[in-house]
Amino acid sequence: MLTPCQSFAGNQSQSWSGSHCLLLWGQTMVFDALFLSLHKGARDKLHANAQRPKKNNTPFHVALVYPFPLSLSLSPPLLLFQYKPLHGDALLYKTDARFHDVVVAASPPPLEDGMVTTEHRISQLLRCDGLQEHVPGNIYTLPLLTPEQCALIHQELAHFATQAPAILKGRVNSMNRNGLLLDEVGFTESLVNKLVRDLRPVCGLLFGPEFETLDHHRAFTVWYGPGRDTKLAKHFDNAEVTINVNLHLSEDAKGGEVDFFGPRHSRVASCTPRFRFRQAVGQAVLHLGSEMHCALPQAKGERHNLVIWMRSSTYRTDHGCPMCGGPWHLEQSTTTGRSR
User: Fold this and answer.
1) What distance in Å separates the CA atoms of residue 212 and residue 197, rounded to the nearest whole number?
2) Does residue 224 contact residue 178 with C-beta atoms inside 8 Å?
3) 218-232 residue pLDDT tens
4) What pTM did the predictor assign?
């Protein structure tokens, strides 16, 4: 009998899903917390009824075992959802050339240049084209993705949103109702992990060396417009560092700026924003997760943003959970770095 997190196809890598279901990406079995919460008899019955899916050539093959209420029949529990990507190989990791220069500038110097000071490296980093410091040590903006790549990502996510059953789409956070978790779309390895990898040394220089230990993340999109969320109240993030990049702005878009007010529990924080981020496709704002901020009303049109909450187990061991101040705890994937 299969056990939780054991693959149908042998030793395959595992990742956790945020949806209330059992998923199969390629030939990898994934059990989520809701499935595991069922009592052993129900899980055994699901295993006994599950049939091994046949191989196919689709790039993404998702098998869903729905956790039926125990009062309902569990046979047959296996439903198949086959998602065919809209763009396929076009969704390779492609960033703005200016962001590449930022990453190079933030990279550790060669051993023979060991005498280069941190202050000199920060100075060189801030000279990079497009990187702007708005609040030293707290808020920066930079060009992250090209408009062409943003359009491809936006179109792919919009396509997935219309094709995937609702049960496959978990809620992105406790405040936003509209958006997608990128792990569920299969973008963790192809996009998110690479972005976090490149941003890690940048964060270490801009925010301090302890922020170079980012090793977990939660990546999702937020979608504002008619029939969707229109604004977001003042809050701080469950993250050490947040990157927020605009993927799409409709031609008639108005509003949707993000105001920043200062660190949580700080005398600096006030009712008057100290920086306002204006949306532009491919442009990102990089800030400490403790920075209080809000999204102003989307007065017209729509916008679609990619947000990555980057977290550090090392930082949380020393400082505790940013939400409650208690001992840190991250539910994580052993292969993707994704955390809830």
Assistant:
1) 10
2) yes
3) 999 999 999 999 999
4) 0.75
